[in-house]
Amino acid sequence: MLPTSPARGSAWGPVHRSLSLAFITYSSMKSILVPMDEEEKVVLDYSSDPLMTDGSFQKSILSSIARAGDAIEKLYGGSPQDIEGVVRDGKIYVVQTRPQM
């Protein structure tokens, strides 16, 4: 998620220094890299993605993301972090984190 993205959709973000969530924005990607034997254009359709259509799923997964972000910031002495990650099958994978400037 990119909090500054003007992408259409529903999004939630952490309220500073709490595990509460507040509406911000949601970013989506128009293309992605996927492993394949030959090049092929893949159209991404988020219209049936539960993050876009299911309010209780949104709150659940985004609360999990907020808790993960809070835990990561605590590991780094409370320093705000720019955290990138992936959610797949309900599991959160952190790709990288760095101090937020």
What kind of sheet is the major sheet? 2 strands, antiparallel
Instruction: Please list the strands of the largest sheet in the order they lie side by side.
Output: 1-2
Strand content range: 15-25%
Class per helix and strand makeup: alpha+beta
Family: Belongs to the PEP-utilizing enzyme family.
GO molecular function: ATP binding; kinase activity
Domain Pyruvate phosphate dikinase AMP/ATP-binding: 34-100
InterPro entries: PPDK_AMP/ATP-bd (IPR002192)
Describe the structure.
This protein is of the alpha+beta class. The chain has one domain (12-29, 44-99). It is built from two helices and four strands, in the order E-E-H-H-E-E. The chain has helices at 50-53, 55-75; strands at residues 12-14, 21-23, 81-88, 91-99. The protein has a two-stranded antiparallel ribbon with strand order 1-2. A two-stranded antiparallel ribbon has the order 3-4. Strand 1 (12-14) and strand 2 (21-23) form a beta hairpin. It is flat and about 45 Å long. Mean pLDDT is 75; it is low at 1-12.
Helix-strand layout with pairing:
Elements: E1 12-14, E2 21-23, H1 50-53, H2 55-75, E3 81-88, E4 91-99
Antiparallel strand pairs: 1-2, 3-4
Structural features:
alpha+beta, disordered N terminus, 23% strand, PPDK_AMP/ATP-bd, 101 residues, 2 helices, two-stranded antiparallel sheet, single chain, ATP binding
Q: How would you briefly describe this protein structure?
A:
The chain is of the alpha+beta class and 101 residues long. The chain has one domain. It has 2 helices and 4 strands.
